[in-house]
């Protein structure tokens, strides 16, 4: 299996704006040595390492880890999409074969419509022209803006992280349901089955997630979905094993052996242009 979404961080680096007392169990370093035995126990042989801070220093930090960590297949980094020198920066980072994608952390922007800024749209077109993978980290409220950006740049090769974080704890489906269906109407857009347990209530059960996974399966199908653990963030609400088994249980009714291989390995490998086992 290929885990399409996991993180590492070193707290002393000091650029993780989201860290605080509300995520106290995460306020320690998480590195390759912490995850390796967990992957081995669960039959996961490679991962996509995703940025967790909005700095180029974070991207450099992750690329350094990837260079010495055999199981990291690629890094989704951060660059400032609204910076005048973005084209030069993208060209420089693309020269590193471990750099496989870009994530601007839309959910953390003060401006919910950040993705629609003129220079951001210009640079999104460059990202699309270069075939760089683009991770969309959003809440439901960002999806109308994402849809307008996709209208402007329909060739963007994108993936929605964490189902766009629907309101699972409240059991709310609308307006997320219609918006995610519209997003899925763009054939170059994929969706990660990830990040669900931290959006649910503390005493979550499998049934809490069924309406959401059923819907994204109907919208995206087995060719545009991929499993991601969101480790270690997910450990706030469940172990790696629990997250993996939850995803298997939820997609199991829809896929056979070949479909499962797509969701748990092949789709992410194709999307991020990394080798399969």
Automatic annotation (TrEMBL):
One of its GO terms (molecular function) is hydrolase activity. Its EC number is 3.1.1.-. InterPro entries: Amidohydro-rel, Metal_Hydrolase, Metallo-dep_Lactonases. The keyword Hydrolase applies. The keyword Hydrolase applies. Keywords: Hydrolase. Residues 3-272 form the Amidohydrolase-related domain. PANTHER family: AMIDOHYDROLASE (PTHR43569), AMIDOHYDROLASE-RELATED DOMAIN-CONTAINING PROTEIN (PTHR43569:SF2). Belongs to the metallo-dependent hydrolases superfamily. This is L-fuconolactonase. It comes from Kaistia geumhonensis.
């Amino acid at each position: 299996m290929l885990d399409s979404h996991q993180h590492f961080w070193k707290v002393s680096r000091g650029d993780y704006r989201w860290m605080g007392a509300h995520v106290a169990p995460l306020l320690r370093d998480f590195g390759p040595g912490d995850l390796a035995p967990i992957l081995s126990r669960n039959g996961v042989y490679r991962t996509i390492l995703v940025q967790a801070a909005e700095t180029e220093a974070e991207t450099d930090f992750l690329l350094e880890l990837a260079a010495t960590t055999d199981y990291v297949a690629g890094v989704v980094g951060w660059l400032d999409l609204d910076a005048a020198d973005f084209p030069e920066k993208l060209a420089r980072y693309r020269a590193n074969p471990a750099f496989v994608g870009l994530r601007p952390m839309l959910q953390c922007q003060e401006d919910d419509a950040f993705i629609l800024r003129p220079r951001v749209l210009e640079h999104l077109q460059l990202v699309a022209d270069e075939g760089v993978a683009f991770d969309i980290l959003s809440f439901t409220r960002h999806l109308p803006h994402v849809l307008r950006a996709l209208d402007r740049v329909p060739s963007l090769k994108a993936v929605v992280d964490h189902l766009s974080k629907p309101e699972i704890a409240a059991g709310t489906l609308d307006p997320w349901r219609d918006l995610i269906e519209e997003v899925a109407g763009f054939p170059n857009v994929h969706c990660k089955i990830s990040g669900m347990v931290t959006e649910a209530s503390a005493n979550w059960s499998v049934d809490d997630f069924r309406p959401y996974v059923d819907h994204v399966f109907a919208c995206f199908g087995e060719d545009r979905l991929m499993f991601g653990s969101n480790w270690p963030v997910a450990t706030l609400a469940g172990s790696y094993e629990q997250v993996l088994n939850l995803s298997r249980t939820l997609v199991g009714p829809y896929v056979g052996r070949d479909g499962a291989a797509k969701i748990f390995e092949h789709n992410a490998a194709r999307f991020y242009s990394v080798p399969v086992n």
